[in-house]
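Structure in, sequence out. Go:
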C-alpha cells in the first residue's frame, strides 16, 4: 500500500525540551488519521513538523516518496486547516478561496471556476459574495476547508478545527469533514484532544503522551485491547475503572481490593503472584440479581440522563457503572455488581503495561 506520509525516528527539541521522542508513523494514501492526547503532548508540534512550520531535530520525514526534512512549507504541498479559520476579513468568500491561486498566477476566469467547483462540493455556492463576518461558525469552517481543497494538496492537516464551535455544530461538522474527506479521496491528519472525535472520525488513531506515541491502531482495537493503563483510561467515556488486585499463587484467581478483599476465579489463568490493576469499563459492569453471584457495594450517587443511568459507588477507588435506560435501584443504596470476564483488562501495577490472560 502506498504510504503518503512516513516519519521514522523523528525527534524534536525546543532548546533542551524534548517535545517529540522517536516518532515512527506511516500514513497511507487516502487514510484519515487522528492524533489524540492531552494538552501539551506534542500533537501540534507533530503536525507543524509535517507542514514544515517546525524543523525536526533528527529522523526522517518522507511525503509521497520524497524526503522533506529540508523542504520549505510551501513546497510540501500540504494544506493546514486551523481552529481560528484565519480567513481574510476584508475579502469575500470567493476572494478568500482564490487568493492562493492568484498568488500562483492562475488566470482570473480559471480561478473563479475553481472556486465555484469547490463551493459546490462544500455547500458554499450561494455564499461566494459574502464576507466572513456575514457567515456562521460552521460556514466559516467550510470556507477554511474550501481554501485548502482548492489547492489540491497531497494531504490535509487539521489542528483542532472544531474547538471554537458549540457542541451540536461540532458533532455535525465531524460528519461533514469526514464525508468531504471520503468524497475527495483525500489523505487527512487530524489533531484533537477529544477522544470521541478521534474515535468517530478516523480510520487510524494515534494516542500520544509527553511526546511519545503510546499506541496506534484502529479505533475499536484501541478500545478492545489498550496496550497500557494510559490508553485504557484515555479512550472511552466515561473512563475505564481501575481496581488494584493481586493474582493468586496458582494464577487462577484475582483478589480485588474494592471496599475489602474480593476474590474472582479466573476462566483463563494469568501470571501468578503479581500486583496488577484490573480495568473494567463502566459499560461492562452490570447489576446482578440479589441471589446471583456478585459484589455488594455501597452507592454514592445515581444520575440519569433518561437514556442512561450512571451509578457511582462509595468505594475507594470509586467505580462508575453505566446502565442502559432507567434503573429500578432500591433505596437501600447497596448494589450487587457483576461483570463478564471477557471484558476485563489487566495491567501490571508497576509498568502499567497490559497483561494478557489467555496465554
Ligand atoms: N515554540 C515552542 N517553544 C518551546 N516549547 C514549545 C514550543 N511549542 C510547543 N512547546 C512545548 O512543547 C510541548 C508540546 O506542545 P504542543 O505540540 O503544542 O502540544 P499539543 O498540541 O499536544 O497541546 C508543550 O509542552 C509545549 O509547551
Ligand atoms: Mg495543539
Amino acid at each position: 500500500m502506498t504510504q503518503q506520509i512516513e516519519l521514522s525516528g523523528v525527534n524534536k527539541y525546543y532548546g533542551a525540551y524534548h517535545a517529540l521522542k522517536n516518532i515512527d508513523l506511516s500514513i497511507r494514501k487516502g487514510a484519515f488519521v487522528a492524533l489524540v492526547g492531552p494538552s501539551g503532548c506534542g500533537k501540534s508540534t507533530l503536525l507543524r513538523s509535517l507542514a514544515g512550520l517546525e524543523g525536526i531535530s533528527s529522523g526522517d520525514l518522507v511525503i509521497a516518496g520524497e524526503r522533506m526534512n529540508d523542504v520549505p512549507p510551501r513546497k510540501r504541498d500540504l494544506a493546514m486547516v486551523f481552529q481560528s479559520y484565519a480567513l481574510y476579513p476584508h475579502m469575500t468568500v470567493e476572494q478568500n478561496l482564490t487568493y492562493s491561486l492568484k498568488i500562483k498566477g492562475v488566470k482570473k476566469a480559471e480561478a473563479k471556476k475553481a472556486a465555484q467547483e469547490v463551493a459546490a462540493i462544500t455547500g458554499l455556492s450561494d455564499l461566494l459574495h459574502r464576507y466572513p463576518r456575514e457567515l456562521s461558525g460552521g460556514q466559516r469552517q467550510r470556507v477554511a476547508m474550501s481554501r485548502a481543497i482548492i489547492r489540491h494538496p497531497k494531504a490535509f492537516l487539521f489542528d483542532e478545527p472544531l474547538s471554537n464551535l458549540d457542541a451540536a455544530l461540532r458533532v455535525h461538522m465531524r460528519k461533514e469533514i469526514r464525508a468531504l474527506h471520503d468524497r475527495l479521496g483525500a489523505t487527512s491528519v487530524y489533531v484533537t484532544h477529544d477522544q470521541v472525535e478521534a474515535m468517530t472520525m478516523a480510520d487510524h488513531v494515534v494516542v500520544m503522551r509527553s511526546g511519545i506515541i503510546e499506541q496506534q491502531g484502529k479505533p475499536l482495537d484501541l478500545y478492545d485491547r489498550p496496550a497500557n493503563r494510559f490508553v485504557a483510561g484515555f479512550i472511552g467515556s466515561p473512563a475505564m475503572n481501575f481496581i488494584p488486585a493481586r493474582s493468586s499463587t496458582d494464577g487462577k484467581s484475582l483478589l480485588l481490593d474494592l471496599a475489602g478483599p474480593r476474590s474472582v476465579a479466573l476462566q483463563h489463568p494469568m501470571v501468578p503472584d503479581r500486583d496488577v490493576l484490573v480495568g473494567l469499563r463502566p459499560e461492562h459492569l452490570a447489576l446482578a440479581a440479589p441471589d446471583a453471584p456478585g459484589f455488594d457495594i455501597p452507592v454514592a450517587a445515581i444520575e440519569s440522563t433518561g437514556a442512561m443511568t450512571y451509578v457511582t459507588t462509595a468505594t475507594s477507588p470509586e467505580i462508575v457503572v453505566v446502565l442502559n435506560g432507567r434503573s429500578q435501584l432500591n433505596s437501600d443504596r447497596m448494589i450487587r455488581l457483576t461483570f463478564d470476564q471477557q471484558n476485563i483488562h489487566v495491567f501490571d501495577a508497576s509498568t502499567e503495561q497490559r497483561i494478557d490472560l489467555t496465554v
